[in-house]
Amino acid sequence: MTAAAVWSLLIPAIDRSAALGKFAFVPAAGGFILGVAFLLLMDRVIPHLHLDSDKPEGPKSSLNKTAMLIFAVTLHNIPEGMAVGVVFAGMLAGDAGISFAAALALAAGIAIQNFPEGAIISLPLKSSGAGRGKAFLYGTLSGAVEPLAAILTIAASGIIIPVLAWLLSFAAGAMMYVVVEELIPEASEGEHSNIGTIGFAAGFVIMMILDVALG
Asked: Is the pLDDT at 29 greater than 90, yes or no?
């Protein structure tokens, strides 16, 4: 997600704003900050529970632990779907800086990291006594918001294109919020935190290769 935010979202946003000269960074920086603020707001208004935590975040709710854990993963999947939708919307609009291969690379990278996200839901459910089918279904449904967010974003392409640079960086900011606030802390827990670091590096390189080679 970090590599995707840089190569597939922030760099295209800056390139698209080249006409602004020295101020080409403004849409990228502004959109990035708005993306972080959006996820920060969602964390405050939607009840959810982080992995390995017993204290829910957001407003008080009567939802059970499983439901709030699903909400947490689903909430953080929204910007990933938006990112794919924004890139494909730019490609369909004929943006010279966004090729089909680059959009496909981003979609592939997001799809790869969805497997462990689904496992975050399915494995605890299975270990708590839920059936294999139910655990798999809940893990799958947590990611169903991504294609929905992508489709809605593409459908709004007429509105998106004039502010494409801002939305590219908005998606990047939202994704980076998830990485720093959620994924890195969880990957560093336990005795073998170096495994999380190695995984981060491997994921970063894979996404970079996909984006540069296909883009």
From this structure: yes
| Statement: residue 106 has pLDDT above 90 | no
DSSP category for residue 64: -
Closest CA to 146 of 175, 122, 120, 110: 110
Per-residue model confidence (pLDDT) at position 51: 59
**Cα–Cα distance for residue pair 91/102, rounded to 1 Å:** 9
**How do residues 170-194 score in pLDDT, each as one tens digit?**
989 988 888 888 777 777 776 666 8
Say if CB 60 and CB 48 are below 8 A apart. no
Read off the tokens for 193. Answer: 């935190």
Full-model pTM: 0.75
Structure tokens at 204: 């970063």
Q: Which residue has the tokens 């294109």?
A: 161
How far CA 135 is from CA of 10, 18, 109, 142, 148, in Å, comes to 36, 48, 24, 11, 21
Whether the predicted pLDDT of 18 surpasses 80: yes
Angle separating helix axes 145-155 and 132-143, nearest 10 degrees: 20
CA-to-CA distance for 149 and 165, rounded, in angstroms? 18
Beta-bridged to residue 48, according to DSSP, are 57
How far from 167 is each of 24, 58, 180, 202, CA to CA, in Å? 14, 26, 20, 27
48 phi, psi to nearest 5 deg: -160, 165
